[in-house]
Design goal:
Elements (H helix, E strand, L loop, with lengths): L2 H6 L38 E2 L13 H5 L19 E2 L16 E6 L10 E5 L18 E5 L11 E3 L2 E4 L4 E4 L5 E4 L8 E2 L1 E3 L5 E3 L11
Antiparallel strand pairs: 1-6, 2-3, 3-4, 4-5, 5-10, 6-7, 7-8, 8-9, 11-12
Bound molecules: FE2/S2 (inorganic) cluster.
The site of FE2/S2 (inorganic) cluster has 11 residues, from loops.
InterPro entries: Rieske_2Fe-2S, Rieske_2Fe-2S_sf, Rieske_Fe-S_prot
Pfam families: Rieske (PF00355)
Organism: Halalkaliarchaeum desulfuricum
Length: 217
């Protein structure tokens, strides 16, 4: 790991927190500047994706998500469903040709009644690089999608170090080529995968909801 990549991880509790903070040095988990998708060209291709926010489990404590405006307070259903398009922070649908290998972006379910947004990481790698831990039947054209909500303490997984997805709060690390398995830090389980495919027009769509509960169990 390079010095630059360490510096990029401003959420490390030993370093000053840039942007919204929780008073203890961590990026605030109650803020999400999701419209400001940023790309930084630092050593090892470190990229910062989206912002920092909080959202607890979608499986049970839906009320926690209401605090961050992810779901309508009355909503109890799935976040994604079959044929729901994945869209970027500007609401634009993602076409098969939009990402290159190695890219990572934050996407959301296309808005519909009661669903405002739900942050999801979309990665693209050559299909042959994925290991069996990734549910390959739920990837398409090298694309795989995972929840952006860290299962440790619900920060956003907002940075990357090479291919590794990094949660800046406690340096949780996930390998998207191995089903977003935990490869560093305290998270207790992988990032849940979202099953995706391509529409007839070549846009990324979900084929169902996340394959595991999202957030902190
Ligand atoms: S909240 Fe992500 S590593 Fe702790």
């Amino acid at each position: 790991m390079t010095a630059d990549s360490n510096n990029e991880r401003s959420g490390n509790s030993s370093e000053p927190c840039e942007g919204p903070c929780d008073g203890e040095g961590y990026p605030s988990i109650f803020r999400d500047d999701r419209a400001q998708v940023q790309r930084r060209t630092l050593a090892k291709g470190v990229v910062t994706v989206g912002g920092i926010a909080s959202a607890l489990s979608l499986a049970a404590p839906l009320s926690a998500l209401r605090d961050v405006d992810v779901l309508d307070p009355a909503y109890t259903g799935p976040v994604y469903e079959e044929n729901i398009h994945l869209v970027d922070a500007d609401g634009e649908r993602i076409h098969e040709e939009d990402l290159e290998y190695g890219d990572v972006i934050t996407v959301f379910p296309e808005p519909r009644p009661d669903i405002r947004d739900a942050p999801t990481l979309l990665v693209r790698h050559p299909e042959a690089e994925y290991a069996d831990e990734t549910a390959l039947e739920h990837t398409v054209s090298g694309y795989a999608a995972f929840s952006k909500i860290c299962p440790h303490m619900a920060c956003m997984v907002s940075q990357v170090d090479g291919n590794i997805l990094v949660c800046p709060c406690h340096i949780g690390e996930f390998d998207p080529l191995e089903g977003a398995a935990v490869v560093g830090g305290p998270p207790p389980r992988p990032l849940p995968q979202l099953p995706i495919t391509l529409s007839a027009e070549g846009y990324l769509i979900a084929t169902g909801d996340f394959l595991a509960p999202v957030g902190v169990l």
